[in-house]
Amino acid sequence: MAETQTGAVRSGWLEAIEDQKLDALVNEALVANPEISAAQARLSRARAILFQSRAAQRPSLSADSRASASEGFNGRADTTAYAVALNASWEADLWGRLASASRADARSADAAEADLIAIQQLIAASTAQAYFLLIEANQLAGVERSNLASLEETLGFVSIQFERGLRSSEDIALIRADVETSRASLDLAYQAQRDATRVIEVLLGRYPTSSLDVGDMAPATPVASVIGQPADLLDRRPDLRSAKLTLLGAHARTKSARADLLPRLSVQASFDGSNSALEDLFDPSALAASLLMNSTQALFDGGARRARIEAADADVEIALANYQLLVLDAYNEVETELDRGRVLERREVFLSNALSEAEDALQFSRFRYELGESDLLNVLSIQQRVASLQAQLAQTQRARLDQYVALALALGQDI
């Protein structure tokens, strides 16, 4: 990364684009997109699992109550008995088995939260890029409509000249062929509009009806963000944070699996009371208490615990490899988008210059054709070149906006 581009990375790429329609679409996508809803559910699930693992480190308390009645025979009196019991148990986490498992679940919950942020950023970026693509499709349809109108105007002029015997049948056939070709291209442009519209509607969680209208005015491409230090990328990008947390969680699960080889120490306490009269159930003479300390050690389990350790170690290796790959991919994405941005910026300048020259050439060529100093094929060729350059310029301007958002996503910028 260039040394002159280091510094604090600017946040808020959406605000920098300054497009109210895009703001509204992105906000709708962040609320209604099903992928975000699924990520939120995964986060809730991870937090619930964490709560369970933390509860395993605390004492548990249960209560049991009973009542029984018996009917006497042969003159014996009926009897009623009541009993209540409170039982408490707690495992002393001497080797950190439960604490390590809890830390692993905490890392998983943090990773799920980072995943949610990553999905939100991705959906926002995808919505913005789909929005730019729809504007480009509208612009290309406009270029094709303008080209068709120009060709039809030329056809009208050539037809008048043909009737006067000033133009040949070849000229009429040639311009008619170009008119029909332009109509076919316009039909494809309308289909591209509908396709681009459906992409956005699906991102918004809507039924794809192709009814969204965003116009054909593209926002200006904002100034590229300051890049920052390469190492900062590891903390800014939520997908990298998630991968790192997954690695830390895998380490914690390995520690928990190893601690499972060691003896477990648990404490159990009970408090019992029984009496034939309910009101005397808690009379001290009817109460009894007990305390038990229990130590257990697995002597033979068929190698199951050793296998769990091996599986946990393998999970660490997998998580480490995934993290390394994601880091390399992240740096590659940044460098690729920086390079693409420089190329697209120059390309827009070149195409703008080329379009200006082609439009001048078309005007001069038409003037010469009307004077009979040039043939129709030359006019049509230049006219198609102008339409092609208009389309390429619209595509390049969209690509620059797309690159700006892609770079912001690669840098881990806030929405």
Q: Can you describe this structure?
A:
The chain has 415 residues and is of the alpha+beta class. The chain has nine helices and four strands. It has a four-stranded antiparallel beta sheet with strand order 1-2-3-4, with no helix packed on it. A hairpin with an 8-residue loop joins strand 1 (60-70) and strand 2. It starts with 12 loop residues before the first helix and ends with a helix.
**3D shape:** elongated
What is the count of DSSP helices, taking H or I runs of 4+ residues? 9
The N- to C-terminal Cα distance equals 23 Å
Secondary-structure element order, N to C: HHHEEHHHHEEHH
Strand count: 4
Range of helix content: 55-70%
- What's the gyration radius in Å? 37 Å
Outline the low-pLDDT stretches. 1-10
Spatial order of the strands forming the largest sheet: 1-2-3-4
What percent strand?
5-15%
Q: Helix- and strand-based class?
A: alpha+beta
- Mean pLDDT comes to 86
List its traits:
415 residues; alpha+beta; 4-stranded antiparallel sheet; 9 helices; 11% strand; disordered N terminus
Give a topology summary.
Layout: H1 13-17, H2 20-32, H3 34-55, E1 60-70, E2 79-92, H4 97-163, H5 169-203, H6 233-236, H7 238-259, E3 264-275, E4 287-296, H8 304-370, H9 376-411
Antiparallel strand pairs: 1-2, 2-3, 3-4
